[in-house]
Recover the amino acids of this structure.
C-alpha cells in the first residue's frame, strides 16, 4: 500500500513538474496590448481598467498562470471577452478554466466542432459565433476579427489591432517551422498559402505578427514562411510529376535548405505527406 502511495506521489510530482517547467512570459506590444507565451498557442491580450480581452486560452492547466500574468498588468482584472482563433485544443482547452461566464467569440465552425466533442466543457463553448468581420473595443484598443476562408482548419480567424499595427494570425503562421494544416478538419494547403499571401499583402514592414507558435515575427518572417511553402510544394509537385509515390518522395526528402523547418510535431516527413495531398 505504502509503495503504491509513494509511486502515485512520484507520478503526480512528475505531472506537476512537467507543467511547472513552462513559464508564462509576456511582451508589451502597445499600451494595454500584450503577447503572452506559455504552453500551446500564443495569446494576445488587451488588459486595462475596463477588463481583459484574451485571444486564445492554451490549456486548462495553464489558466492559473495566465490569470496571474493578466493580474500583474491590472490588479483584480476580469476577462470580459475571449476570442478563439480556431478549435484546436492547444488554443481552446483553457476556455472554461480561464473565461467561464465571459463572452467567448469564434468562427461558427468552431462551435460546431467543439459541441461535437463530448469531452469539451460546456462552460468553454463559444457564446457568440460569426463568419465575416467583427469590430471590438476595450481599454481604448480597437480590434477587428476577420474569419478566413478554409486554410489551417475550416474555422480560422485572425485578429487585427490596426492602430498598434499588430496582427494575431493564429495557426496561419508557425514561425520558422513547417505548419500543421489540418486536412481532416477542412484545412487546405492551397487555401493556407493563399490566406498567407493575402495577409502578407495587407501588412507593412513595421507590422508585428503574433504567430500561433513561435516568437513575435515581422513581415520578412512571414515572407520567409510563404517562400518555404511555395518552394517545398513545387519540389513535391515536381517529384510527383516524375511519377514518384508519396513514400518515395518521403524517402528522398526535401532539399537540404529546409532541414531547420522540421520540428517534433511537423517533421519533414509529415510536411511532405501534407503537401502530397495538395
Ligand atoms: Zn491549430
Amino acid at each position: 500500500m505504502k509503495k503504491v502511495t509513494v509511486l502515485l506521489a512520484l507520478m503526480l510530482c512528475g505531472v506537476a513538474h512537467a507543467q511547472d517547467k513552462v513559464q508564462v512570459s509576456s511582451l508589451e506590444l502597445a499600451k494595454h496590448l500584450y503577447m503572452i507565451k506559455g504552453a500551446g498557442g500564443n495569446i494576445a491580450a488587451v488588459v486595462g481598467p475596463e477588463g481583459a480581452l484574451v485571444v486564445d486560452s492554451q490549456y486548462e492547466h495553464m489558466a492559473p498562470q495566465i490569470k496571474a500574468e493578466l493580474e500583474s498588468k491590472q490588479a483584480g482584472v476580469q476577462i470580459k471577452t475571449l476570442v478563439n482563433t480556431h478549435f484546436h485544443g492547444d488554443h481552446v482547452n483553457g476556455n472554461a478554466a480561464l473565461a467561464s461566464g465571459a463572452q467567448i467569440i469564434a468562427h461558427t465552425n468552431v462551435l460546431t466542432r467543439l459541441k461535437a466533442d463530448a469531452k469539451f466543457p460546456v462552460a468553454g463553448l463559444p457564446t457568440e459565433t460569426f463568419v465575416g468581420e467583427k469590430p471590438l473595443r476595450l481599454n481604448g484598443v480597437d480590434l477587428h476579427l476577420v474569419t478566413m476562408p478554409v486554410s489551417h482548419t475550416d474555422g480560422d480567424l485572425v485578429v487585427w489591432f490596426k492602430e498598434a499595427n499588430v496582427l494575431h494570425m493564429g495557426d496561419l503562421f508557425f514561425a520558422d517551422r513547417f505548419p500543421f494544416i489540418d486536412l481532416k478538419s477542412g484545412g487546405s494547403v492551397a487555401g493556407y498559402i493563399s490566406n498567407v499571401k493575402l495577409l502578407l499583402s495587407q501588412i507593412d514592414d513595421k507590422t508585428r505578427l503574433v504567430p500561433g507558435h513561435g516568437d513575435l515575427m515581422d513581415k520578412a518572417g512571414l515572407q520567409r514562411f510563404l517562400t518555404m511553402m511555395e518552394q517545398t510544394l513545387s519540389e513535391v509537385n515536381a517529384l510527383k510529376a516524375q511519377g514518384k509515390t508519396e513514400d518515395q518522395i518521403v524517402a528522398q526528402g526535401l532539399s537540404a535548405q529546409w532541414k531547420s523547418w522540421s520540428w517534433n510535431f511537423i517533421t519533414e516527413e509529415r510536411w511532405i505527406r501534407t503537401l502530397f495531398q495538395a
User: Anything to note?
Assistant: Residues 86, 88, 152, 171, 180 surround zinc ion (CB under 6 Å). Confidence is low (pLDDT under 50) at residues 1-19.
